[in-house]
Amino acid sequence: MIAANSTMATKRNELEEGVEELTIQEEESLQNGNESAAAKKKRKKKKKKAAAEGGPEEAGPAEANGHQEGADSRQLPGIDEASAEMSPSAEEGQEDGDNADQGEEAGGEAADGAKKKKKKKKSGKKRGGSLEQTDPPSIPVAHLFPEGEFPMGEFQDYKDDNLWRKTSAEKREQERLEKPMYENVRQAAEVHRQVRKYVRTIAKPGVHIATMAESLEDCVRKLIQANGLQAGIAFPTGCSLNHVAAHWTPNAGDKTVLQYDDVMKIDFGTHIEGRIIDSAFTVAFNPVYDPLLRAVREATDAGVKESGIDVRLCDVGAAIQEVMESYEVEIGGKTFQVKSIRNLNGHNIAPYQIHGDKSVPIVKGGEQTKMEEGEFFAIETFGSTGKGYVHEDLECSHYMKNFDVTFVPLRLPRAKQLLATIDRNFGTLAFCRRYLDRLGETKYLMALKNLVDNGVLMECPPLCDIKGSFTAQFEHTLYLGPTCKEVLSRGDDY
Fold it and tell me: Structure pTM?
């Protein structure tokens, strides 16, 4: 009996020491702030309950361990009491651990929930914000700028006697009243910028030029939301190669393929309500042609810089030629001076009329006529390694209705029918044979010739320098506004 009592005392001491260690650990966990709020409340309740019953602080409902159940526990009540003292602490420790795990899980779920909320908020903001253009472009530019305010071009101040315009209250008010017109041409210019950015990705050696031209034109129709004469393509896409300087686009069945050593001029236009953006650039893959392209691009920039209200057209031409002919290019071991093509010009642009009544020369001399406020001008320059003079050659693809013709009696019924189609779809804007094919017109060549012979339509055949030469072109559209000039077609590329 004495041995049993001593054994019980020893075990009681061990259990008490274990309880003290657990109590110390719990106090440390409280100090470190690792215990959850639920565990703290539970602890306080148990302490109050133990104090009311007059037992030890850590006393609680006794839970017998599995290995102490049965006769042994009944014969040794001291052990039961000690177990009763230990079990609540051990249980609390386990519960505290479980509560901590639950707290961590809850915290993790809360964090995950917060992340999900943030993601949803971010995606909602993206859906509700401004759209981004697809690749290839397919979203109309008007949808990208729903408020109707489109990117502006490059502003350049006037010189000399017209500097006062920038600070004039009257001219600023006049500019404000022209806002609807400004937004139309800026929208057309933004379409041009996005389309030509896309075209540079597909204009590669090996591509069929007809496929490239049709892809370009389809892209314009999507981005500008083509709608008859209200908005669409202003004239056929020029894809002139090498010695051909302008006005060439593939007719149906043309199998021309772009080559590495080709120099291609891409000239296309967009319009909204007849306000035309006419801009062009040159693509070359062989770096040997880089000086030629640089000469023409810088000559165009010089012409744009020189242009302005009250500036004489001949002065613009002189500035262009001076820059253009300061360049040389070496091709095949031979050095060529870059020449301005003297019988090609820039021009002013009127509503639904690509070529107005003023021509901007690209050589010195020429007209003394002055530029005026409110006019649109296409400043385009052509450089050549050949003679610097072009002539009509090759099969015609471009046609345009004579702007000054009102009524001409026609005898051929097919010619009358074709003219009705042209009036309805193009008006006085230029078109090509591919456009007639797209509208479902067939067997129209005789009727087309009849309209040309009667002066209703004008042929615009390809313009070529001597074979073996190379030509390049760059072009910008600008507007001479009340306070400054705006280079509408200016972009990051040129």
Answer: 0.74
